[in-house]
């Protein structure tokens, strides 16, 4: 790392200092000699082109402005994760690429604008979600008898020219949530569980999105590692070239792990649910990326 290296943590105008559990990242980075500050990605006053490294963190308005956002990514000389990864990862059709590489993913069908709803899983709850979106925005769960409501929801998404994913709902999520495994510089850091974002109203005492730290069992850890390897290989990268990643894994009906999401662009990293050393590990990964 050269003396005086400068890092910009890219956020958005609505949350210019990111979420509450990341506000102090510049202070953590300063502790190991890295100068860093927050800056909304579309701030014309921020000299992103002059930074030694720009880290995508909370650019959470990108789904509404994806073309503009990706153009900005392409303009940044030193971006983590890289612009090509962001382009691929901000459209959930990347799941098909990973499935082709042998990664067990939640079964997924794509419905393009103008195409009708088709449910390959007629006897189970299913989920519709836009292929470009974040924080479950636009996602909805439907029971087999709610086909008409699903058709109406699909029409609303298609009206905004959205491609839509349809997936069978994994019932284990209502019982045990989604396990999110976090990696820094390709190395496992910590994990947390997210409560069901689309819970079954018949399951009592569920808190949508509730989070708590967890030590994942080996099967979940292995599934996350496999997904990381496949994603890096798709882009001709080493895992260490990915500054951060969050791998969301669920269990299928047979108990085997399935990949739900692989977040390589702007995921919440669950620092509030992690051990105190997690931010230090992130800072070390940033410093390593500056070399």
Structure, described:
This protein has helices spanning 25-30, 66-75, 83-89, 94-100, 147-159, 172-176, 218-234, 278-289; strands spanning 6-11, 35-40, 53-56, 79-80, 109-111, 126-130, 140-142, 164-168, 178-184, 187-194, 211-213, 244-251, 257-263. The protein is of the alpha+beta class and 291 residues long. It has 3 domains: 6-89; 109-168, Dna Ligase, domain 1, CATH 3.30.1490; 172-264, ATP-grasp fold, B domain (D-amino Acid Aminotransferase, Chain A, domain 1). β3 (53-56), α2 and β4 (79-80) form a beta-alpha-beta unit. It is globular. It comes from Saccharopolyspora gloriosae. Keywords: ATP-binding, Ligase, Nucleotide-binding. GO terms for molecular function: ATP binding; ligase activity; metal ion binding.
**Biggest sheet overview:** 5 strands, antiparallel
CATH superfamily of the largest domain: ATP-grasp fold, B domain
Order of helices and strands: EHEEHEHHEEEHEHEEEHEEH
The overall strand count is: 13
| Total domain count | 3
Taken from the alpha-carbon principal axes, the silhouette is: globular
Quick synopsis:
With 291 residues, the protein is of the alpha+beta class. The protein is built from eight helices and 13 strands. Residues 95-291 form the ATP-grasp domain.
Supply the key terms.
291 residues, 4-stranded parallel β-sheet, 8 helices, 26% helix, DcsG_Biosynth_Enzyme
